[in-house]
Amino acid sequence: MEYEASVFQVFPEPQPDGILQLTQDFRADPREGKIDLGVGVFRDDSGATPIMAAVREAEGRLLATRETKAYIGLLGDVAFAEAITDLALGAALAGSDRLANIQTPGGTGALRLGFDLIVSARPEATVWVPGPTWLNHIPLITRAGLKHKVYPYYDAATGAVDFEAMAEAVAAIPAGDVILLHGCCHNPSGADLDLEQWRQIAAMLTSGGVVAFVDMAYQGFGDGPDPDAAGLRTIFSALPEALMSYSCSKSFGLYRERTGLLTVQCETARDRTHALGQMKLLARTSHSMPPDHGAAVVSTILRDDALRADWLAELDGARLRVVSLRSALAEAFGAAGFGDRFDFLKDNKGMFSLLGIGADAVARLRKRYGVYMPASGRINIAGLQAQQVSRLVEAISDCLEMEPVK
């Protein structure tokens, strides 16, 4: 009897993930001196992504004391949730009985679970995302079944936030819709709101009845853990309802441990109880129980004064490395004859910036010099080594369609 089923023949030709493909191409490139500015992981000046000392110590303690690998439950590690909300929201907000927390498989898992929760509560809502935004935000929104629209955010001419255009768009968002905000270290631009701008946005959202969803993936990489959380705390203080997705991949270097948290602030404690029940249901029908190891590492670090101090010092060292690279790049561009064209690099925050050099120049950089970055010109500053700065600037100078400004 001939087999006639064709369940999987309907799939289209798969399109490779641009960033992941870039990584594969970089690894296959045999040239010495190649530079990987694509995938968003922190690297030290030797090009390695190290395990933090506090993480190693916490893992050693867990290895010595853990006695079971049994499930930890749908909500995950409660101590981890308490520690992260305290770190991100501050003690006053973290102690609220209006917060519903659930551990997730990474920040991506928190985003998807948050969008699923929005679908359950208000399927007709539109999610407003900044232009540009992290490349996975819109696929997560659409896969969850929600509509999305883009609000203006980044001014390519200045390398900063176009706050006037943003504020005008935010003021017009319909009540009941959701706005996605980057908590700090905007990906891909590195352009962040200042505290006064956060306050203005919070006031607009409150008066307009708009729900805020803050993606917090880089706490500590901008100006430090507390300054980086100031915008998030402003939003949660002002709005009766808000969401936060939190990723520990960058701040704790736990990329492969998939350690994240979804926090939902409700208007009342009763609403919180009902929201938490829905969050459990959504988790049960997606990933079920979250992975435990990364969350246990984080809670061990944050609940031990000495480990916490060690972690904060190492995180600050990572931040200062990025700050130093930003200054070195901007100065090298200036010395190469570009005037102040790339000075925005010194003002941007976090690991990423948009060079604004065009896809043709990006392609030439890859072909001629082995410099790898997405076609958008988004670079991972933390992927650069100090000794590569001069070579990178020389390569960009050669590959730009426009001559440097003399």
Word description of this protein:
This protein has a 7-stranded mixed β-sheet with strand order 2-10-9-8-7-3-4, sandwiched between helices. A two-stranded parallel sheet has the order 1-12. Strands 5-6 form a two-stranded antiparallel ribbon. It has helices at residues 18-28, 53-65, 78-89, 91-94, 106-121, 137-143, 163-171, 195-208, 225-228, 230-238, 269-284, 293-302, 305-338, 344-347, 359-369, 389-399, and strands at 35-36, 99-105, 126-131, 147-152, 154-155, 160-161, 178-182, 211-216, 242-247, 259-265, 352-354, 371-372, 378-380. By secondary structure, the protein is an alpha/beta fold. The protein has 2 domains: 18-51 and 317-399, Aspartate Aminotransferase, domain 1; 71-303, Aspartate Aminotransferase, domain 2 (3-Layer(aba) Sandwich), CATH 3.40.640.10.
